[in-house]
Fold this sequence. Notes:
The protein has 284 residues and is α/β, with parallel strands linked by helices. 33% of the residues lie in helices and 14% in strands. It has 2 domains: 6-121, Rhodanese-like domain (Oxidized Rhodanese, domain 1), CATH 3.40.250.10; 148-269, Rhodanese-like domain (Oxidized Rhodanese, domain 1, 3-Layer(aba) Sandwich), CATH 3.40.250.10. It is built from 11 helices and 11 strands. A 5-stranded parallel β-sheet has the order 1-5-4-2-3. Strand 4, helix 5 (93-104) and strand 5 form a beta-alpha-beta unit. Helix 5 crosses helix 10. It is globular and about 50 Å long. The two termini are 35 Å apart. 43% of the residues are buried.
Amino acid sequence: MEPKIIYSPEEVSELINQNKAVVIDVRSLEEYSKEHIPGAVNIPDVFCYLSKSTPEGIDDLCKVFENHFSSAGVSQEKVVIFYEDALHSLYGGSCRGFFLMQYLGHQKAGILETGLYGWKKSGLKVRSGTENCTRADFPINRNDSIFATKYDVLNAISDPSIKLIDNRDRCEWLGITSSPYGVDFSPRKGRIPGTIWIEWYSFIDFEDDLPKFKSRDKIIDVCRGYNINIDDKIIIYCFKGARASNTFTALKIAGFNNVKVYFASWNEWSAIEELPVEKGTNFN
């Protein structure tokens, strides 16, 4: 049986009432302080942290989040639930939290799919201010099988057995803008050569005005339309790993088991002049 990934507001509420969950709000401190799920801990770095895939960069990522998750009271016994306002409000920032948990070795993690909007729509209470929590021991057991470095991606460019997916917005793929944060935020515009463009929204449907992941069959159908099959070796990248984590989550829901995220993504790649960049309208 596959581990549970997606949680409803009612399921999260029940876990909180039973003291079986650590709930993590990935939004800004300002938004969190205004209103949040009662008991939720605020860790904006889940969404904001910019990583590098060098050994030093990976060590730093592990140290930063070991401290964050220990401070939040994450232990092996508890389920960790991430949320944002809605599944698309921070480009899938809650999914970035899910991916980090998978990478750092904590398997009991999931996403409040409907986010805070869905929580309130279900009639559940919110709270303002901040929360106190008891620090716990968060051991790290890295799962490198799902984490791609710039070297993995560089090798994949010339390896036809690996499907490289760019799931950024169209304007980034075309090289019109360098990131969601500004036209020239990154040093270079464009894409990694040989990548298949599947915009991250492709795996999301709207239900009662709330974004939710498509069904397993629909996710598989979307991938088949790009000649990507469930047993393929896949590497996903975006700008900093949020949208890539969103697609990673969708593919995990659908049963894809050979998927890596290039977590440092375009933010790292574009800054290294010797790494190749492609532009234009040649869609794969």
